[in-house]
Amino acid sequence: MKTFVRLAVATFAVLTVPQVSSAQPAPPPTNAPDGVPADATPPATPNPAPAAPAAAPAAPAAAPAVPRGPEWTSLRLLHAKGIISDAELASALADIGLVGAGDATTLVVAKLRTTLYGYIEGNFKYDSTQTCLEFCGNTQVQRPGTYRGNHGRTVFSSRDSRLGIRLSAPEEHGIRVSGVLETDFFGPTTTSEQGTYVNPVLRIRASYLKIETSVLDVLIGQQFTLFGWQPVFVSASVQYPGLPGEAFARTPQLRLSKTIKSDAVTTDIAVAANRPPQQDSATPEGVAGLRLQFNKWTGQHTAYMAYSAIQPASVGISGDIRLFRIPELAVTPHHGITRIGGGVAFDAYLPIIRATKTSKDNALSLNAELSITSGMADDYSALGGAGTANAAIPPAMAGGTATPYAPNFDAGLAAIDAAGHVELIKWLAYLASLEFYPAGTGGRLGLVANYAHMESSNARSVGTASPAAATPDAQAAAAARIRDHEDFFELGVFADPTRSTRIAASGSLYNDVYADGVTAKNYSVIMSGWLFF
């Protein structure tokens, strides 16, 4: 019954209120007294008092500088709005290091900025020998006269596709904090070709935290090593980075750096403690570097094929020191043999015909590196042992069986001979790279030419026996597997059909000379395409 009454009253109100209100002046907007509904109809009066004028609406509040809710945007737009500073944008672009980094998709949530970036890549490659997969780097070319040295290989792959996430918080008290997690699909290969190329394994490329202040910058985690000032001096190449003789490596580290800026010159000073190249040495690797940038002398530079930008001329020097503690040549070692390795690298990027943001016509530049190292094979991509090996442990009794020596260091860093002498493998390497951008293309068409050389002064004399004890057969066998030197040549071209795509192709020659004088050649043709995001 109560429900019926309520429905009846509601129906009556709906039918009658519009008729009454149509004969009355409009009620005040929302100025009803407390306890009276704002939409109630005032009582009818013969001479109603004039309604009070409506209060002027309040001015809308100013929009906050940073949105309170999630917002999809880009680093460039955030910079244009004044949400991030020049220094924050420069830091982000340096971290991402890809074409179109400023337009990478960025999500802002409660002032925390998350930038998703990377590229999708397809790679098609033919090699005249069965030496390498998608990239050769410093891999030793298969000898002629062998099956793998006389037959070619074709690889189709997308394993270089890259995905990265960069996180950054708002600057507080002059302190900027950011972090990067970057991956690709060059994880451990499987036992089948289909598994390797069709179902590749994800791996970490970079994973680090960066704290930037006006006094000192700190980097903690895995990133390019400071040796060779990587990746600043990575050469333009269609072949994957880490060319023969080019320092190219990433490793966990703790780095301290300071940048001193002026109108003409920017100075970078840095020191780092890297992951020990030999964990059983119990001693981190030490690296230090100095770099000068000449801000008013600029050129167009492409690093690998992943990043193109106007870059100032720069020169750098870096040094490395590392300790090795290697067990003696014995079945049950009791003593260690200590060796100190390291190296020095000189790098330069020099615009010959300058480029600016407004003109890249006929821009020409030279990128070069010279490195001298001892026990640093791990800083050259895929170099490994280059044919060097460790001697076996001699038998305790005449006529007995030799015991394989179990090294506690990676191949190519050092070798121990039959006399128990340990020697670190030495390398001399240099590389020169030219980049040219024809007029009228806006820097979207580039030509590259690369030459590199590396050689070892002691690789051929270590790894099997002491020079005095080695038999002629042992010396010949060692010379037939050990690299003496290698030369690399590449000519390439790349074009950007759109701002977010790139297509490139090149032809290369890897000319590898063994210690016995035999020359092994690998001719490589590669074509790749990228979509950057």
Helix/strand order, N-terminal first? HEHHEEHEEEHEEEEEEEEEEEEHEEE
CATH class: Mainly Beta
What is the CATH homology-level superfamily? Porin
Which sequence of strands runs across the widest sheet? 3-5-6-7-8-9-10-11-12-13-14-17-18-19-20-21
**CATH architectural category:** Beta Barrel
| Count of structural domains | 1
> What is the C-alpha radius of gyration, as a whole number of Å?
34 Å
Key traits:
mainly beta; 16-stranded antiparallel β-barrel; two-stranded antiparallel sheet; 21 strands; 10% helix; disordered N terminus
Q: How would you describe this structure to a colleague?
A:
The protein has 533 residues and is mostly beta strands. It contains six helices and 21 strands. It has one domain: Porin. The strands form two sheets. It has a 16-stranded antiparallel beta barrel. The protein has a two-stranded antiparallel ribbon with strand order 15-16. A hairpin with a 4-residue loop joins strand 20 and strand 21 (519-532). The two termini are 67 Å apart. Residues 1-49 have low confidence and may be disordered.
